[in-house]
Amino acid sequence: MAGSLEVAKLVIASLLYQYWDTINKILRTYLAVATIILVVITSMGIYGFLSAAYQDTYRQLTIKENEISFLDQKKEFYEKDVARYDEELERISNNISTLSGAKATSIQVRDTTSSTGFRSTISTAELRLSQKRIEVEEQNRASIQAKREQVADSLQKYQLGILELENNSDIAGELGPLQYL
């Protein structure tokens, strides 16, 4: 239909141009008005197609922005988790460093067999407790490190998803001019 209207418009415009002086005024007026009406009709059709394309492209842009926003929220959540696990690992490392500084202490014990009545000995109770606590902290560190790796993997998945959406060449070609406007 659009093709036939366009052909009719061109034929009428060509006819008016070639026979302007020989055609009577009523037919000339009718053909001029018909040409103008055909121009308006085809312009409205083109406007309709452009509007529909704009609406479709804008809808794609909105969907893309919503997806990116959702992925950003998930990314921020996992970034906070990674930071929290990093702080926990730092605390555990500090605890292990503190516990590693435990020493055996020298104590004096009453001994009747000794000439002075006291005997010097070494107490390793604090050292044994520190060693047990270090083992517990090492297990905690391994557990927290495993959780941190899972969260970091999830964070990377969402970062890659955002990057893929932002650089999707199929949508980017259509949305580039719209985003520019």
How does this structure look, described?
This protein has 181 residues and is mainly alpha-helical. The protein contains 4 helices and 2 strands, in the order ααββαα. A two-stranded antiparallel sheet has the order 1-2. α1 crosses α2, α2 (25-100) packs antiparallel against α3 (125-166) and α2 crosses α4 (169-180). The chain starts with a helix and ends with a helix.
What is shown here, in short?
With 181 residues, this protein is mainly α. The chain is built from 4 helices and 2 strands. The chain has a two-stranded antiparallel ribbon.
Output the keywords.
181 residues, rod-shaped, two-stranded antiparallel ribbon, mainly alpha, single chain
Helix proportion: over 70%
**What form results from the Cα inertia axes?**
rod-shaped
Rounded to the nearest angstrom, the radius of gyration is 42 Å
Number of E strands: 2
In order across it, which strands form the biggest sheet? Answer: 1-2
The largest sheet is: 2 strands, antiparallel
Oligomer state of the chains in this structure:
single chain
Structural class: mainly alpha
Share in β-strands: 5-15%
Mean pLDDT: 82
Low-confidence stretches: none
Number of helical runs? 4
User: What's the N-to-C terminus distance?
Assistant: 32 Å
Question: What order do the helices and strands follow?
Answer: HHEEHH
